[in-house]
Amino acid sequence: MILETAEAGIKAKPLVTATMQAAVLTAPKTFEIKETKLSEPDPKQVRIKMQGCGLCASSLPLWEGREWFTYPQQAGTPGHEGWGIVDKTGAEVTSLQPGDRVACLSYNAYAEYDLAEESSVLKLPESLNNQPFPGEPLGCALNIFNRSDIQAGQTVAILGIGFLGALLVQLAKAAGAKVIAISQREYSLQIAKECGADEVIKMDDHYRIIEEVKNQTKEHFCERVIECTGKEWPLNLAGELTAIRGKLIIAGYHQDGMRQVNVQLWNWRGLDIINAHERDPKMYLNGMKEAVKAVTEGRIDPLPLYTHTFSLNQLSEAFEKLQTRPDGFMKALITFDQN
Length: 339
Known about the structure:
The structure is a single chain. The protein is an alpha/beta fold. About 30% of the residues lie in helices and about 25% in strands. Strands 3, 4, 5, 6, 7, 14 and 15 form a seven-stranded mixed sheet that branches. A six-stranded parallel sheet has the order 10-9-8-11-12-13, sandwiched between helices. It has a two-stranded antiparallel sheet with strand order 1-2. The radius of gyration is 23 Å and the shape is globular.
């Protein structure tokens, strides 16, 4: 655009505004790729050129549409599992510099660039340079595992084998526990076996599952049970599978309303109920640091779980796959052209 001064009528030089491509959720199930302003980082922020961002099931309600959401959403929303290269740093940033490869806690990562606070960015080691690293979900898995207090020799039941559940199978096995994986999809049960699960059970009949776990544990049930589904029935099933004085860990994201649970059973068995969710960015970052260590040490291997890759232009298709979860689907990533 050419600007002219009002007084002298002198033509000024063209004003160039830097832009980027970003996905905008303009209506339920409708992403549009738009040219948006490239923002400058605040003094304590960094700007990241995104290499990729994972898709999270917690974003499905926003994509599907609920009466409490408004559209269009902010550009890049709801991308929050991003990683990439630091492009620019704010004036007060000291621990990062342009060129650093990082995982970040940011919230508009379905875009070519996103901003993040310095305190919410983790520099990645060179050993991970050739692999995707969606730090937020990997960090969640480590935080849940740490709060589960899993010990060698325990029996651990994990309900819901998606990306999170599969990582927890790996972590529990690395800790020396016996793992029973319970899930609806045959494909998920196969993934659980590949991740090291000792036993797999199809999640189809409440009382049959209870009896099977009861028999497998010689009527003792499980010292640790991790519910990863975010649904009411599996949560109540998880309580039934937890041993006296055991720990029931709620890892699923229960975001669609109230739950009715069997508190009488929880009381009778003296269960510890752990809501293994974090909201403190420091705890998220701690989990991400633990995830880097777990990957480099070989306690988890997320690479086989990244089953689908899409471009930014294919974001709606990616969410459709996340919603329907066809055979072969475990975790989808959006990746960006780095040329």
